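Appendix B, Record 12. Input sequence as logged:
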Amino acid sequence: MLDVTALGELLIDFAPVGAGEDGYPTLAAKPGGAPPNYLAALAAYGAKTALLAKVGDDSFGRMLINTLTMAGIDTAGIVVDPAVFTTLAFVTLGATGERSFSFARKPGADTNLRFEELELNLIDSAKVFHFGTLSLTHEPAREATKRAVTYAKSRGKLMTFDPNLRASLWSDLAEAKKQILWGLGYADVVKISDEEIDFLWACSGPEGARRLLDDFGVKLAMVTMGAQGALLKNVAAEHQTPCPSVKPVDTTGAGDIFGGAAVSRLLKLGKMPEELDSGDLEVIARFAVTAASLSTQKYGGIPSVPREEEVLSFLETL
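Logged structural output:
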């Protein structure tokens, strides 16, 4: 029995680790993609996970599969396609570790995933199904995602969703908004940033959390607010936790690690999202915020997931 199966992009992040005399960055290849980052955190914190994705039949694709295996993620649902190249993302970092992305994805392997290629047994055997929006930007991955979401929902899976807006991947931001709103309609648990809330409704994080519950029937809204921490809210309670003080070098994957860490605590509590009280929300929020914050002290997504003992030890000092 699996705890969580996710569907979405599996790719290589080229992250800067320095610069040459001419100012061009020196890049290091790191495993990436929001769903695998999310699953890597869950696996690190005791959950059994699997990924549905596509890579190319190339050296990067094989390296990614090996990395997920080493991270404890089931790779039986990863399709290797010789007709396309593994998707690449080039990351640039600001002075405080904030990142922006440029994608080599015209097309990339991740956008070519087809529903007929999905190992549906990995959805059947999971408690939770997770998806995001990068697999909704292009066909045939959009159809594969939508059919997988409706399949999982019809089988009573707990649905978790990350809007994960990457504006550069959408030719039309109105279409991005449409697809995000579609995803929200299927979600029980949503991890969303305050920037994404502003994009959708031009409102504050707390107001966005209220909209998710009232307008979409979301059972647990988790709003990340950068250095200000996170707000968790359900119908019964809410809790806001600030970020601990760290010196970030790379924020790549921090939001995904927050989401995976939060769902790992939800699974350990053994309650439905709408049943959580304020104490439960505090437990989830503090662990997830701390895990995400510690991850920013290392480069990359999957490689930066802190060990559970490290997170718990750090929490004892707060």
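The chain has ten helices and 14 strands.
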